[in-house]
Amino acid sequence: MSLTRHFTRGRDLARSAGDHAADVFAPLALIGRGLRRHADWAKARWAATPKERRGPTLLVGAAVLLGVFLLPHGPLLAIVALVASAAWVGRSPKTPSEPVPDAADVKLPALYAALTPYFGGYDDPGALYRVDGEWKSAFSEWAFDQDGRLAALEIAYPAYFTDTEPAARARIEQVVQGKAGRSREYRFDWDEESNRLRVAALAPLPADVAAQRFVTAPGEIVLGFTDEAGSHRTIPVEQGGVTEQQPPVIWRVGPRSAEPHLLALGAPGHGTSTLLRSIALQALPHGDLVVVDGASTGEHACLVNRPGVHTVETSLHGALAALEWCARETERRLVALNAARHHGLSAPADVTRPLWILLDRLTELSELARAEGRTDPQELLEVPLRHGRAARVTVVFADVLEARERISPTVRTCTRTRVVLGPVNAESGPAALGGPLDIAPAAHTPPGRGYARIGAAAPVRLQVPVTVDPLDEDAPAPLREAVAALLPHRDARAGAAAPAPVLAEVVAEPAPANLVKDLTGEPVGEPAGGTPPVRPRPLW
């Protein structure tokens, strides 16, 4: 056996012996520690006793010992009591746990230090924000949630801070959100009169509301759901198998609507196509649809050959023909409505039935048209946008956030109902909504999550209902079935298409070829050459 193995074995034996000895002599060490503490206590009491009382104390102690000695089994009981007391006193005291520091004492000083470069007045000796200042003088009210995260805070700032400039506000909001946590949204309420900034953390919106028939009046579209501060109304919705009351974001359309058209921008994969499908499902029971899918992704293939859907176009040629027909249809409706008012008659049903023009990523077709030297599809939207409210024509324009500069000025001017989905920053959010955004977005947002601004109202938070493509096999089956149940007839995968409805009300008016298709897929329009035929209008 080598010398190293001898040393290793000897060290193991010594360690084992020490552990056994510690286990054996642990009670003796405990009793000895207790006796030592008793002795220390006795010495302390003897030192604290006045000299004139030490004699009587010794006499009383001797009398007690004599009494114990004279009792039957007295010495044995005294020794047992002394050992038990020493064992109890000799226990190792538990180390008291350090008190949990207050979240305000940890996080608010850091926030105060971060705001000092922006609020501090270095030429003012009595500045509210100083390097050696006290944070309690700047923060008057605060609250933390159960997880120790900032829930509410009221910040005082000096009067010379430029709180009327959006850039200055954005810097402060960015600092506060960075110190409070970027995983949540925060609402900032700037009180310019009293130089106060109130910050409130917002609870996440429900993201499990599936597509369903909402309780709304004709002409009302549910864009999504918000919090209690964003809506004064609630509607019942099926959520998780139970009926809950949720505050909706209602967009009102029609001839009396002040904002009849909508522009939706968002990051790819964050729900702009989902929003279009949700609007289409709500509009189909009361109106007709013309859909243009500029990206040709097939997101709206579920609407093909559905009752009430005139056409779903994905090519440049089809989009130009569809939008040209929409412009002519808008003019025809205006003429018919004016004639009915002039003669004091009620307007025909085919001009009062709403017409929806849903456009998904039309800017891609605009670039293709520009490359081929053809008419920009956005130019054909001028008539429906400017006269759509009177003609019962509504335009919904959805595109990616990066394409905002490629959208024509007419579209941006006439679409004053705005929706932005996905992550935005201090610049892209207000630019897409057309106004300031007093809510700091979270760093990561689920699909369908964003903000909505209707006209000149303040922006509100928005969560679009989960409206998946029913033809997407990767989507959950319950969500696909919920969307398929809202379509005008049964899903083509589950059964045969519904029979074509009876056509009525023949109107002598030409229409562009290959535009309006009936339910069998055959185009109804003007053939090449010859006399324009009469165009039957379906009454769905």
TrEMBL record:
Domain of life: Bacteria
Keywords noted in UniProt: Membrane, Transmembrane, Transmembrane helix
InterPro entries: P-loop_NTPase
Stretches the record annotates as Disordered: 517-540
Transmembrane segments: 58-89
SUPFAM superfamilies in alphabetical order: P-loop containing nucleoside triphosphate hydrolases
The protein, known as: Membrane protein
